[in-house]
Amino acid sequence: MAVPIRTAVAGLCAGLVAALLTTGPARAEHRDERAWTVSAAAQAPRARISLDDDTGRLSLSVTRDGRTVIEPSPVGIVTERADLSRDLRFLHRKSRTVDERYRTTSGKRLDRRVRMNETRLAFATPAGARLDLVVRASADGVAYRYVLPAAHGDVLGETSAFTLPPDADAWLGTYRPDNEGQFVRYTAATAPTGDYSHQALFATDGGYTLLAESDLTGAYSGARLAHDQGTKTYRVKLADDRVATDGPLATPWRAMVTGDLATVTRSTFTDDLAPAAQITDTSWIRPGTVLWTWLAGGRPAGQSLAAQQAYVDYAAERNWPYEAVDAGWYFKADEWDTTDPDWQTTSWIPELVEYGRAKGVGIIVWIHQRDLDTPEERARWLPTLERWGVKGVKIDFMDSEAQPMLRWYDAVLRETAAHHLMVNFHGSTVPKGIQRTWPHVMTLEGVAGEEKRTNTAAHLTTLPFTRNVIGSMDFTPGAFQRVGLRPNSDAAEAGLAVAYESGLQMFAGTPESYDARPLARDFFDQVPAAWDDTRLLAGRPGEEAVLARRSGDRWFLGGVYAGAARRAEVPLTVGAGRWLVETIQDGADGLVRVSRVLRGGDTFAVDVVANGGFAGIACPWRPGVTSCHR
């Protein structure tokens, strides 16, 4: 049963009203203006909103340090009873500051601080229909949303668009409902005609800008970008031709994460825009590394208790906190993809959970969305899994960002939280602030990940600057056994465990492939899945990405490269003092470990093979310290 529209909209608007009452007094400004600016600081991105005298149309542009980020771009929304994209007249302006702190359960860093300036501009049509344009600016981005204080019928579309300098470099992923398109480099004007994923990255004179959404719920519709080759404009195209609404409406944020590449990579802007957490007790939500069994064992493993127990044994031996059972466990033995109607009484999952509990390994189980698509089904599945002691669910095959599916997300998010089940979404949307609002969502796929056989090394080096910027990404690294099916080296594959952030880091390899590479295996033993800080050490989309992520006093390093072999220079910008740096690199006869003592700020060299990379750990050094492993 779909979530009632009135309930969803009322909740959204209540959240918006609450947000307007957060720290920072609002002030109303009643002046006959035609242009307004919003910025958080002198060196921060600056939004300029303009109202055309002749047409009554709004546009928004963004600059940084006086240089162009986004050229003047259309702003507006059309409903069945009001065209709120033209013939607008200015009513008044209110401004306030947003100053918040919050803590997450996973992500680039757990403790967050939000500082934004917000302007709310009120407009009206000649017939009296009201449109409020809410614009926020912070040190790392600009965002806007539409607020319709009164009902104007269903939404028929937006005139929202982003206009870039035509020669701006662009990294775009062809749109797919499962968000698994590959990112390819174009320029803003030369990209082929078609639809693209909303998380598009552009490089302009004003720096890098990643387009994104935040606070998307079943009250609205998901968006993608539509482009005509030869033009420099990317239009916002909704998944639905008509978005149902029967009352006031606040749309999702249209976000522009903006800054130098390091700022964009480290940004939590889309989370910062999202509503506060809907869960108060998060003690049961625990990120961690996972032995994932689909690429390791396939269909046979999914239907074998003995195979799953062997995987649990291996996870326990490695001190990996979770093991994931993928498709097959509740299917009929002789009919793949057919649900056993007696699964609640015939399943061996309870036995596996007890087996894992005795060894300190939690169990996560796969389930198809079609088995959770009604309240009755969820009332059968979710309490049963909770009663068995399952720690989380991997829900697969949503493959839509249309409003009906988003309403399903609204329902399943509440219900999995109520039953203390962590969530990993596959065949899914991408994070759009969801992990702040629902902290039990540990990761989402929405990426051309390890399962793909057509990935390129260039695509792999683009992901830290595109898809992974906006939230956890279940790429499933570590499939060492897929030699010839993945484009990178073994050292680069190990580095993905750090270069890619995921609250449940699903390792996709076989025990045999790990044991054949003990340096990578032992490195995986050390890698956490939640971070205190994240920094970009070096990078260029499509060419290289070297990230450092801190846990406690250790920095974990992950570097991935595309192209010819080289001697890469990496700055150790992780803080002052002396550091022991241990890297795992590709050698002539397999992986090798290289250790060195450096001062913070020094540069170290890594010999990288073609489409290679490295993994590493940096820890404080003092005499007697010989390893960063603990």
Which helices and strands occur, and which strands form pairs?
Elements: H1 5-20, E1 27-29, E2 35-39, E3 46-51, E4 58-64, E5 67-75, E6 77-79, E7 83-84, E8 89-103, E9 111-124, E10 130-138, E11 141-148, E12 155-158, E13 161-163, E14 169-173, E15 183-187, E16 194-196, E17 201-204, E18 207-214, E19 223-227, E20 233-238, E21 249-250, E22 253-259, H2 261-266, H3 269-273, E23 288-292, H4 294-302, H5 305-318, E24 322-325, E25 331-332, E26 335-339, H6 343-346, H7 349-359, E27 362-368, H8 375-388, E28 392-396, H9 403-418, E29 422-425, H10 434-437, E30 441-444, H11 457-462, H12 490-499, E31 504-507, H13 511-515, H14 518-526, E32 533-540, E33 544-551, E34 554-561, E35 566-571, E36 578-587, E37 590-599, E38 603-608, E39 613-620
Parallel strand pairs: 23-24, 23-31, 24-27, 27-28, 28-29, 29-30
Antiparallel strand pairs: 1-8, 2-3, 3-4, 4-5, 6-7, 6-12, 8-9, 9-10, 10-11, 11-21, 11-22, 13-20, 14-15, 14-17, 16-19, 17-18, 18-22, 19-20, 25-26, 32-33, 33-34, 34-39, 35-38, 36-37, 36-39
Counted beta strands: 39
- List the domain count as a whole number: 2
Query: Span from first to last CA?
Result: 50 Å
Briefly note the CATH topology name of the largest domain: Beta-galactosidase, Chain A, domain 5
Large-scale geometry:
globular
Mean pLDDT score? 95
CATH class of the largest domain: Mainly Beta
Spans of 5+ residues with little confidence (pLDDT < 50)?
1-25
- Indicate the percent of residues in helices: 10-25%
Assess the beta-strand content as a share of residues: 35-45%
CATH architecture of the largest domain: Distorted Sandwich
Q: What is the radius of gyration computed over CA atoms, rounded to a whole number of angstroms?
A: 25 Å
Count, helices: 14
Largest sheet: 11 strands, antiparallel
Structural class: alpha+beta
